[in-house]
Amino acid sequence: MNQRRLFAASVLGLVVSPLIVADAQQAVFRSEANYVEVVASVTNKAGDFVTGLTAADFEIREQGRRESIDSFSFVELSTGAPAAPTPPVLFGPGMSAEQREADGRLYLIYLNGATAANTPWVRRLATNFVTENLLPGDRAAIWDSQYPLRPVVFTDDKTKLLADIEPYMGMSLDGELPFAFRCSQATVSSLEPSARELCRSALEQPHRELAKAIQWFNGIQGRRKSILLFAGGWLGPSDPVSKSDITLYAVDVRGLVAPDAALMNPSGQVGPEAAQALGQRLSQLSASVDGLWALANRTGGFAIINRNDFRPGFQRIVEANSRYYVLGYASSYKRQDRVYRDLDVKVKRPGVKVHARRGYFPRF
């Protein structure tokens, strides 16, 4: 196994520490607002991971301006026994002792199948990933916006994770909706004050819980942090995680996406109306697939779409989270705003491809 070295720098208050060799002394978390961490996988033309790269092989440009890489490490996590030695994980100063157990891969499993028809597949595929692909030392949490009062907890306990997957329920327009969605269908101003407050809390709570999960992710440096989105397509916000250094992998639970009978024969419509309705639904179907791909690609991840056998894709996710490079730099952009910044990560070798996030929002 190649020798691994990890350099890290830390700002604590107004004191800036010099670069530290992790093997020589304890590495510390770097917390200044303009510090940017980028996780990158590099593959050759055959799709094989490229090892042996150094910081000098990489180039990072932010908004077209070249940045100086001041921290670098290569992470290789074991996918079997015995466990391989790894670079240290860097924890935020506010993380409690019981949270500092992130030795393996880190996953937030995001259940968002949307429709009730997709519910069985969301549960089944998320369960399969936890059962077959979560390895010793890994930590994961389940996030489901339809059950807003359940806290998001990262754990290596598969039994708890499976129990958190089981209650998931997709939306059904003609059936019983989870409480938060029943609230979203109502005119809040028409409700009694007590019910109005419950609805407001229910609608806000899912986003607070997701924010807590991402905050936990932000308290860790030196590891790839991944969201696994199990969804029946994506037509939602273009980028819910771009403010953090998180890689997103999208799993289209519909499998091979093809027009169904209802799509091919819209009820109550004939002639031009039927053709127009069919075209709109086909366009929406295509957009829902494209949305998953774009969402994942922007973060340096990938989408598993138009597949009925998900096992190779799940294994690819594990592999992508087992070997990668972590690069950090202090951005030369000093304005205290939250304008999206483009990133371009390249390797100065011919015939290779870099998989890394395309940009970020400053943390000011």
SSE order and pairing:
Elements: E1 7-8, E2 11-12, E3 15-16, E4 20-21, E5 35-44, E6 58-62, E7 65-67, E8 71-76, E9 90-91, E10 106-112, H1 119-133, E11 139-143, H2 158-165, H3 179-185, H4 193-218, E12 220-221, E13 225-231, E14 247-252, H5 261-264, H6 271-298, E15 303-304, H7 311-320, E16 323-330, E17 341-347, E18 352-355, E19 359-360
Parallel strand pairs: 10-11, 10-13, 13-14, 14-15
Antiparallel strand pairs: 1-4, 2-3, 5-16, 5-18, 6-7, 6-17, 8-16, 9-12, 17-19
Helix pairs in contact: 1-2, 3-4
Question: What does it look like?
Answer:
It is a single chain. The protein is of the alpha+beta class and 364 residues long. It has two domains: 7-77 and 322-360, no CATH class; 106-319, Rossmann fold (3-Layer(aba) Sandwich). Helices cover 27% and strands 23% of the residues. The strands form six sheets. The chain has a five-stranded parallel β-sheet with strand order 11-10-13-14-15, sandwiched between helices. Helix 1 links the parallel strand 10 and strand 11 (139-143). The longest helix has 28 residues, at 271-298. The protein is globular and about 60 Å long. Residues 1-25 and 173-177 have low confidence and may be disordered.
